[in-house]
Design brief:
Structural class: mainly alpha
Order of helices and strands: HHHHHH
Distance between the termini: 48 Å
Number of domains: 1
Radius of gyration: 15 Å
Number of strands: 0
Number of helices: 6
Strand content: under 5%
Helix content: 40-55%
Largest sheet: none
Shape: globular
């Protein structure tokens, strides 16, 4: 089940020593078997993702991706990694999780260089701006 190597947020968990050695269950392991209770999870993003989409998906698969305040607040945090997680999620949306995993398996950490990322990020910003400009709260 390779999807367990991708966090709901777009982080690549395949390089995580704790996950590899069994000390971490990541975003998905144990929820399908009842070993872990989703009601006890602290990550709002993970709870939403699993409740809405199931353990076989990431936030990249959600139809409310652009309008999800939990996800957009996470990606809007200060820090390089949040930008990279957003880029990973955009790549998964455009190219699929299998293509993402083929690239990410060469990384040494939870994020790395993606092909076609710049255009995906620009597309994301354009979509988000369009969404915000056409929201009911915008009185132009």
């Amino acid at each position: 089940m390779p999807i367990i190597k991708i966090g709901c947020c777009g982080a690549y968990c395949g390089t995580c020593r704790a996950l590899i050695e069994g000390g971490c269950s990541g975003c998905r392991l144990g929820y399908d078997t009842g070993e872990r209770a989703l009601s006890r999870a602290r990550c709002k993003m993970k709870v939403c993702c699993i409740k809405t989409l199931g353990i076989e998906h990431t936030c990249a698969d959600c139809s409310e991706y652009l309008s999800c305040s939990t996800l957009q607040d996470f990606y809007g945090k200060k820090g390089y990694k949040y930008k990279k997680y957003r880029e990973s999620t955009e790549f998964i949306r455009s190219h699929g999780s299998e293509s993402f995993l083929q690239i990410a398996e060469k990384w040494k950490g939870p994020y790395g260089k993606l092909t076609d990322c710049e255009s995906s990020s620009m597309h994301f910003v354009q979509l988000l701006n369009n969404l915000q400009n056409h929201s009911p709260n915008n009185s132009t």
